[in-house]
Amino acid sequence: MAVQREHDVVVDYGDLAVTGGISVFDERFDEMFYYDGDDLGAAYTPEGCKFRLWAPTASEAHVVFYLTWDDAEPMMTLPMKRDVQGTWVLNAEGDHQGHYYTYRVKIGEDWNEAADPYARAVGVNGDRTAIVDLHSTNPEQWEDDRRPAFDAAVDAVIYELHVKDLSSHPHSGIKHAGKFLGLAESGTRGPNGIMTGLDHIAALGVTHVQLLPVFDYATESVDETKLDEPQYNWGYDPKNYNVPEGSYATDPYVPGLRMAELKQAIQALHQRGLRVIMDVVYNHVFDWYLINFTKLVPGYYLRYKEDRTLSDGSFCGNECASERPMMRKFIVDSVLYWAREYHMDGFRFDLMGLMDVETMNELRRRLDGMDPSIIMIGEGWVMDTVLPEEQRAHQNNADMLPGIGHFNDDYRDAIKGSIFYFDQKGFISGGAGYEDRIRKGVAGAIDYNEQLRHFAKEPGQTVNYVECHDNHTLWDKIVLATAQDAEERRISMHRLASAIVLTSQGIPFLHAGQEFMRTKGGEENSYKSPVEVNWLDWERCAAHQNHVAYMRELIALRRSHPAFRLRTAQQIREHLYFEPAPEHCVAFTLRDHAGGDAAKHIYVLYNARTEPVQLDLPELGGWAIRFGGEHVAELEGSRLKAHGIGMIVIMVAGEMVG
Ligand code: CA
Predict the structure, then answer these.
(1) Which percentage of the chain shows pLDDT scores above 70?
(2) Predicted local distance difference test score (pLDDT) of residue 15
(3) From ligand 1's centre to the CA of 225, what distance in Å?
């Protein structure tokens, strides 16, 4: 029986999904066929190549060898031998470096041909697996590459970046525009001689660069054979999970090159003290029907409803069944491979709320075994999926997911207004009634007290942000929400939003260009918009160097005071005090937490009022302005008069307290 292609129809695999009388949809299938070896895929040596494929429902399997990525005729086809747990093996003698292969499996009466899901190298556009000696893709001194020193997740300042956005602007000064290698260039300069690219990022003082998908994605809008045409996509369309994307390589036809160039970029970032987080998309695949998973084991890897239609919480047509043992194993193997082979320092899980708790915890456990400083964060949204509620890796289940951060969408919306109601004002733009939601965010979304409690058990479980690749940029949102306000006032709101993110407990997260008030000209969803909409506009950066400097100072403030980076919920409850403040203001102190420039106590005011306001600081010693002095009208003893929209930080130095 043929597999039906259309969406929203029952996927009837008939006999294709059955072997030995057991359907892939049956739990017994996993009991019978779960394979836990670490040798799936192809293992290369100059003497021979060993293949192992998991395909329990196949009645025959072959490895088909090709000389090139698009030869119509294979070089040779070798039969695989049935082995344990539904796997097939082949030991192909001789040196196959540079060859391509696919698997051909007989499922029912059909022959399907697919790339290896465990492929680590592929030909252009990723339809054939390439055999590459991994060692040959290592840049010089790769064995000396080390993760920059890093301790707790709350010490991170994450900077989210698309490979192409960094270097595509005509004045980026970057030679390898739009490429992995563009990330690796030092000393690049833009308009007025400003730093661009890697120098710009390093000078900001962020700790982690988070790259939008760099694995091989498949989308109509990026064809790796047409790189001289204008093409752009964010890349949330997984095709080959364990292979770098070809369009970011200087030559996508040379399988090892994209691997080498991504490693070079990571090495260059590491050398500048920057860690790298990889955006991974294990919640869905580009096309459920064309993906190698479905061709090799129809019905197994994706998630189906009772009526056998595809569960589609991703809105991309399908979901990966992370809860099924071989899908879970694939995800775990994949993440560990990127961490080990590419020295990735963290992972950001797209639509993590569609993944299951056990898989996420297994990933945390295995990464801890490698290096506990590797960060895990994700989109823990509550979504519409058939996965049972108590198994979903979303915010409301954060207590079951220690060591994993969730994007705090409530805080984002409280600060700038809902992303769904474009003209809705938030705290920064004069919206009313947000103060307690701001306080919850300041406290790291932990159980702070009866009134202020949210999803996190520990502050490392919340990711605080006001802008990311999705939705309007912060600047564009402010423009939409403040039709009446002048530019200067909007700038103050923008600065206040970033200041809140960088002085709250938890993990702060910035979107590239936020430091110069990035705009996409009002576009809400630019995932396949022209690169001109998405690129970092280095002219705008040059024009707003004072805001870049402001961001640099904010980051330095956070990094120099451990009180902004309290490690545990208990420390937050002990040291964080909310102070009296009028409407449109939130004030707090961080008390008795030594460190930084000898600060004993820190007072922080987020002032979203437009008129001057008078506040009383707690009697803790001699207060002195540390940050945001331009908003201080008067500070006398414990009496503070503040004006404008902005953040003020005032400190009592350690030695001044008896
Ligand atoms: Ca691709």
Answers:
(1) 97
(2) 67
(3) 10
Average pLDDT, stretch 415-432?
97
Q: What are phi and psi of 276, to 5 degrees?
A: -125, 125
Residue type, 521: G
pLDDT at 153: 98
- d(Cα 112, Cα 297) in Å, to the nearest integer? 10
Q: What is the pLDDT of residue 160?
A: 99
Tokens of 161: 């970046």
640 strand-pairing partners: 615, 635
Distance from the CA of 224 to the center of ligand 1, in angstroms? 6
* Residue 340 to residue 144: CA distance in whole angstroms: 14
- For 547-559, what is the mean pLDDT? 98
Highest mean pLDDT among 6-10, 16-20, 141-145: 141-145
Find, among 427, 448, 375, the residue nearest to 406 by Cα: 375
Alpha carbons within 13 angstroms on the beta-carbon side of residue 34 total 13
DSSP string, 246-281: GGGSS-TTSHHHHHHHHHHHHHHHHHTT-EEEEEE-
Which residues, 6+ apart, have CB-to-CB distance to 632 below 8 Å?
625, 640, 641, 642, 648
For 46, other C-beta atoms within 10 Å of its C-beta total: 10
Contact 131, 229 (CB under 8 A): no
**Per-residue confidence at 447, pLDDT binned at 50, 70, 90?**
very high
Give the mean model confidence (pLDDT) for residues 127-150. 97
Q: Which residues are catalytic?
A: 350, 379
Whole-angstrom CA distances from 494 to 338, 429, 466, 550, 584 are: 36, 9, 10, 11, 15
How far does the centroid of ligand 1 lie from the alpha carbon of residue 97, in Å? Answer: 22
Q: Is 5 helix (H, G, I), strand (E, B) or coil?
A: coil
Ligand 1 (ion): which residues have CB within 5 A?
216, 246
CA atoms within 13 A on the CB side of 190: 25
Q: Going by DSSP bridges, is the β-strand pair 405-407/375-378 parallel, antiparallel, or unpaired?
A: parallel
Residue 343 CA, ligand 1 centroid: distance in Å? 21
Distance between CA atoms of residues 464 and 503, nearest Å:
10
Work out the mean pLDDT of the chain and round it to a whole number: 95
Segments in 97-238 forming alpha helices (H): 163-167, 180-183, 197-204
* CA nearest neighbour of 321 among 354, 290, 289: 354
**Quick one: tokens of 170?**
């005509």
pLDDT of 334 above 80 = yes
Q: Answer yes or no: is pLDDT of 65 > 70.
A: yes
> Which pTM was predicted?
0.96
